[in-house]
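#lab-general

N.A. 3:47 PM
ok so I finally got the sequence cleaned up, no stray characters, all 149 residues accounted for. can someone with queue access submit it? mine expired

B.Y. 3:52 PM
send it over

N.A. 3:53 PM
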Amino acid sequence: MNERTRRPHQAAPFRDETVRPRVLVVDDHAPMLGYVARLLEKEFTVAGLVLDADSLLQGWLAARPDVIVMDISLPRCSGLEAATRVREAGCGVPIVFLTVHDTPEIVRAAWVAGGLGYVAKRDLEWDLVPAIRAALHGHRFVSAALDSQ
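B.Y. 4:20 PM
back already:
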C-alpha cells in the first residue's frame, strides 16, 4: 500500500531507526501500566501513561507518540471505542491492543477499530515489543496463541 492509497487513519510506517519510538500506554490497572512501561523503556521512549479512555485524547495530544498500546477492557468506554474516537480526532499512529480477550471476534473488532497489533496479556513479555515494531512498520501482529485459533 503506498502513501496515496493508505487509509486516512493509518500513519506512514516509522522509518527513523536513529530515534527511539515514542509509546503511549493506556491501561486502567495501574500495576499493569507500570509493568508495561518498565518492559518497554528498554527499547522505546514511554511518552505517556493513561489510566482510562476519557484521558486518551488528551494523552495523545500531550505525548505525540509514534504508537499507542491500549487495553481493550477500560471503564466506561472500551479500548475499541476509544481507538475509534481518537482516530476520528485525527490520530493516525498505529495502535497495538493488549488484552485478556482471546476470541476471534474481538481480534476482528480490533482490526475494524484501526488496530495493527493484538497481544494477549499472558504473552506480553514475548510479544509486545515485536508487535510494536511490526505496527511501526505498518504490519499486523497477533500473539501466536491467538493466531492459531
